[in-house]
Design a protein that fits this description.
Number of strands: 3
Strand order of the largest sheet: 1-2-3
Order of helices and strands: HHHHHHHEEHE
Helix content: 55-70%
CATH superfamily of the largest domain: Cation efflux protein transmembrane domain
Shape: elongated
Number of helices: 8
CATH topology of the largest domain: Alpha-lytic protease prodomain-like
CATH architecture of the largest domain: Up-down Bundle
């Protein structure tokens, strides 16, 4: 199943869970269940936007975007982070109001049951989406999956608290739980915003991938004939890029140097799946002119 298919399933699941949680809130009057339902509404908006951005990211490169549209996925992650933070603030407001003006809760058993059903749906989907996100390196799919996981933990906390209300009769547990839910959602929203911002700023490859790149270069480098330097990397959505210089003896023919470069490129792409490699050939005693930061002032 493709990433877009998972996001379509996420949209459908969000609609079902919204219906279940809204019904639970309607019958019980619980502000913590209302908070849980609001987060599912955010899930729906996030899944729809993620689907749009993944569709855009899948478009081929064109004249205006010669490197492709892969960074569109970061907008999805950032948008979902903003939605999560807004939902958290709304939940906190409702929790404070309920704390100041407590109300009796009704039909809690039914509300708990509906919430558990919705959590099972979200949990199963989140697990499948997270596995797919790691497989295809989709930040949009990962963001939506992690939001669903947050929703599952939120619902688990709400269910535990409402069971406590049933057992003890302490009505103040309901707004307290809603506030804790809001803080947990807020933490996840900040995490998604930081990740999307880092992606838009061209972060380097992860440490493991960089180590694999260096291992390949070390295995192909030879002190007198082949030397590598100026290795730069970046991540753009599902794509990963590495640019570097390969120095060879000036006496080598172009075809010989190109053959060695091809071997290095193939080895790098085997070591780091999805990697795009750009290697500039230079004579052994030539260094490129690099633009210093002060030249930009």
């Amino acid at each position: 199943m493709q990433a877009r298919s998972y996001l379509k399933l996420s949209v459908a699941t969000a609609v079902v869970t919204i219906a279940l949680k809204t019904a639970a809130w309607w019958w019980t009057g619980s502000v913590s269940l209302a908070a849980d339902a609001l987060e599912s509404l955010v899930n729906l908006a996030g899944a729809v936007f993620a689907l749009a951005m993944v569709t855009l990211a899948a478009q081929p490169a064109d004249d205006n975007h010669p490197y492709g549209h892969h960074k569109a996925e970061y907008f999805s992650s950032g948008f979902e982070g903003i939605l999560i933070i807004a939902a958290a603030l709304g939940i906190l407001w409702g929790a404070v109001d309920r704390w100041r003006h407590p109300q009796p809760l009704e039909a809690l058993g039914l509300g708990v049951s509906l919430t558990i059903i919705s959590s099972v749906l979200n949990g199963a989907l989140a697990w499948a989406m997270l596995r797919k996100a790691r497989e295809v390196r989709s930040v949009a799919l990962e963001g939506d999956a992690r939001h669903l996981i947050t929703d599952v933990w939120t619902s688990a906390g709400v269910v535990a608290g409402l069971i406590g209300v049933i057992a003890t009769g302490w009505q103040w547990l309901d707004p307290l739980l809603a506030g804790l839910v809001a803080l947990n959602i807020l933490r996840e929203g900040v995490h998604l915003l930081r990740k999307s911002t880092g992606g838009l700023m061209d972060e380097a490859l992860d440490a493991e991938s960089l180590a694999n790149v260096q291992a390949v270069l070390d295995s192909h480098g030879q002190p007198q004939t082949v030397r590598f330097d100026h290795v730069f990397s970046r991540v753009a959505g599902q794509r990963r890029f590495v640019d570097l210089h390969m120095h060879v003896p000036a006496r080598w023919t172009l075809s010989r140097a190109a053959a060695v470069r091809g071997e290095v490129e193939e080895a790098l792409m085997r070591a780091v799946p999805g990697l795009r490699v750009s290697i500039q050939l230079l004579p052994m005693d030539v260094e490129p002119h690099m633009l210093d930061e002060e030249d930009l002032v």
